[in-house]
Design brief:
- By secondary structure, the chain is of the alpha/beta class.
- It contains 10 helices and 34 strands.
- The chain folds into 3 domains: about 220 residues, Ribonuclease Z/Hydroxyacylglutathione hydrolase-like (Metallo-beta-lactamase, Chain A, 4-Layer Sandwich); about 230 residues, Ribonuclease Z/Hydroxyacylglutathione hydrolase-like (Metallo-beta-lactamase, Chain A, 4-Layer Sandwich); about 100 residues, Immunoglobulin-like.
- A 7-stranded mixed beta sheet has the order 11-12-13-14-15-16-17, with helices on one face. A 6-stranded mixed beta sheet has the order 18-19-20-21-24-25. A 5-stranded mixed beta sheet has the order 1-2-3-4-5.
- Helix 3 runs antiparallel to helix 4 and helix 4 packs antiparallel against helix 10.
Length: about 575
């Protein structure tokens, strides 16, 4: 939503969106937009700012987010980030949803100040929640107090998405901040709240109270104590043949002959670490390495160790492509590791190694591409969890949720909770907390918590498509990064998921930043219930294209909802 405050033939805008509002100004008698005021720096709010600047408008935004629109004139191609850039982030674009072109900032807005324009006095209220530096704008118009709240809330007592509130990894500061911000707005008693998306809110008291209640419910569910560990450096011999390395993320299972199966191997599992394990526990060699998921602290040591030990690498099939071709995915596209599987494991596959029996489980609470491994060793039932779940300080099982790892409401918590019933372990071995025993009571309590948490988050998000407010990867470009040369034509696809139980129709409008031309400017689509589908696009690279990272992006109409420049992919032109 873009809002216009008018005074004579001049106006100011709250947000710009694409800037298409310029086409309609004549209809309402406005000749010039003097200012654009932003509640926050996400692309969908401000990707039309450069167009507004060309028409003489000035830009203002909250002080804490002014950096995201600066320096003026910064645009593609960008410098490649080398081997960093987790979740697709570039050094020049530290935020996942910042604009690709920087308009610059003419004035920073600070909490408590009054922005005066013509007859309007606009109070700036710091309202972090959707983002860390969000502000709301309070103004009296025709005798009525109106609050422009950005994405702090949407009509119906909901939030637009969950992942934007997770500014800190594995934490949810936006939940706590939103509760305080809503209280601030309520104290000003506005008669009308105008959000950046959806319908206007004409009963602010009712909807603020409803959203606060929903946020508090989620806050309570996610407020369980953190995972506990008393040993952060040494090896712990859980049983005669199972070793937990508390100094790294690795777990070691040793056969009677001295060969070892290593579950996860980050850089911390050094040759010196391995020599210590060999000396203390009789390990002769690492025979097999199985990674649980693609996070660097679980895989960055695999290639070096496998080469030194002549180990085989066994990979769950849901993880194979992420390891072999990390450039295909926005989550991993800047990773340098390329790990090829010697054997592919499948969900619910049972196998034997070293005289022990194993079974593969999908354990998608930490990320969709994570497995859990059941093992029967020393007559004990083990479940190796990696980062999926841990033992909390209060003695209960739990986990921290981070949407940008790639998780879903439907499968994440619930499928993980169900796996504990199927595996029926006695001892669980996580990567970042102590091993712990489980029984029917702990499993039942975890399932109850999983149900309550899933329900609470679902109620918080905007219906009918709560899943796309939880899964930031429902729309992505695939492959996420392509390396090409000037003058080439490459193919990239926009990959869309339909989490709904009904068909989805919509339209895609493509856009690029840098020296690129996308042949298909728009296309219409239909997705069946539960379908994931790729829509191919051909991208021509100018023969004089500059080296660096060029951007492809798209506006997506999804079942009548519009998502501006939501997905993006990278075309990297090397020197």
């Amino acid at each position: 939503n873009v809002y216009l405050l008018k005074s004579g033939s001049s106006g100011i805008l709250i947000e710009t969106g694409s800037g298409k509002v310029l086409d309609y100004l004549e209809e309402v008698g406005v000749e010039k937009i003097e200012w654009v005021l932003h509640t926050h720096s996400h692309r969908d709010q401000c990707f039309g700012d450069l167009l507004m600047k060309k028409h003489g408008s000035k830009i203002a935004i909250g002080k804490q987010e002014a950096y995201a629109l600066q320096p003026a004139g910064l645009y593609a191609p960008f410098a490649p980030p080398g081997n960093s850039g987790k979740y697709g982030k570039l050094p020049v674009l530290p935020g996942r949803m910042e604009p690709f072109q920087k308009p610059g900032v003419d004035q920073e807005l600070t909490g408590g100040m009054e922005f005066k324009w013509k007859q309007y006095k606009i109070r700036v209220i710091n309202t972090p929640g959707h983002t860390k530096g969000s502000v709301s704008l309070l103004v009296e118009v025709d005798g009525k107090k109106i609050c422009f709240c950005g994405d702090l809330m949407v009509s119906g007592g909901h939030v637009r998405d969950f992942y934007s509130m997770q500014w800190i990894y594995l934490q949810n500061p936006g939940i706590d901040s939103s509760i305080v911000s809503l209280q601030k707005i309520g104290e000003f008693d506005p008669g009308l709240i105008l959000p950046s998306h959806g319908e206007l809110i004409d009963n602010p008291v009712k909807e603020i109270n409803l959203l606060t209640m929903r946020l508090q419910r989620v806050q309570k569910c996610l407020g369980r104590g953190g995972a506990g560990r008393w040993n952060w450096s040494g090896f712990v011999q859980i049983s005669p043949h199972v070793i937990q390395d508390c100094g790294t993320t690795s777990q070691i299972i040793i056969s009677d002959g001295g060969e070892a199966l290593l579950f996860d191997c980050g850089k911390g599992f050094t040759p010196e670490r391995l020599e210590e394990a060999k000396r203390k526990f009789g390990v002769k060699k690492i025979d097999v390495i199985i990674p649980s998921h693609w996070h660097g602290d679980h895989i960055n040591g695999i290639s070096k160790l496998a080469k030194a030990e002549e180990s085989k690498i066994w990979v769950w099939d849901g993880l194979v492509e992420h390891l072999e071709h990390p450039e295909h995915f926005i989550t991993t596209c800047w990773f340098a590791n390329h790990i090829k599987a010697d054997r592919i494991l499948h969900e619910e596959e049972e196998f034997r190694w070293g005289g022990y029996s194993f079974k593969v489980y999908h354990h998608p609470v930490h990320m969709e591409e994570q497995m859990g491994l059941y093992a029967k060793v020393d007559e004990l039932d083990f479940y190796f969890l990696a980062d999926g779940t841990g033992n909390r300080r209060d003695g209960k099982m739990g986990c921290a949720l981070h949407c940008y790892n790639g998780i879903t409401l439907k499968s994440g918590l619930m499928k993980t909770a169900q796996s504990f019933y199927e595996a029926n372990p006695y001892i669980c071995v996580p990567a970042h907390s102590n091993c712990f025993a489980t029984n029917s009571n702990t499993r039942n309590e975890f399932l109850k918590w999983a149900l309550e948490t899933t329900d609470a988050i679902t109620a918080l998000l905007t219906p009918p498509h709560q899943e796309i407010g939880y899964d930031p990867y429902w729309a992505v470009f695939y492959p996420a990064r392509i390396i090409a040369k000037p003058g080439e034509e490459v193919q990239i696809a926009l990959r869309l998921k339909n989490h709904a139980e009904h068909s989805i129709t919509g339209k895609i409008w493509t856009r690029s930043y840098g020296n690129l031309i996308i042949e298909q400017e728009s296309l219409e689509y239909t997705l069946a219930p539960g379908e994931q589908k790729d829509f191919p696009l051909f991208v021509k690279i100018d023969k004089n294209a500059s080296p660096g990272v060029h951007i492809v992006t798209a506006d997506i109409e999804y079942d009548s909802f519009i998502f501006a420049e939501f997905a993006h992919g990278y075309i990297q032109i090397d020197e």
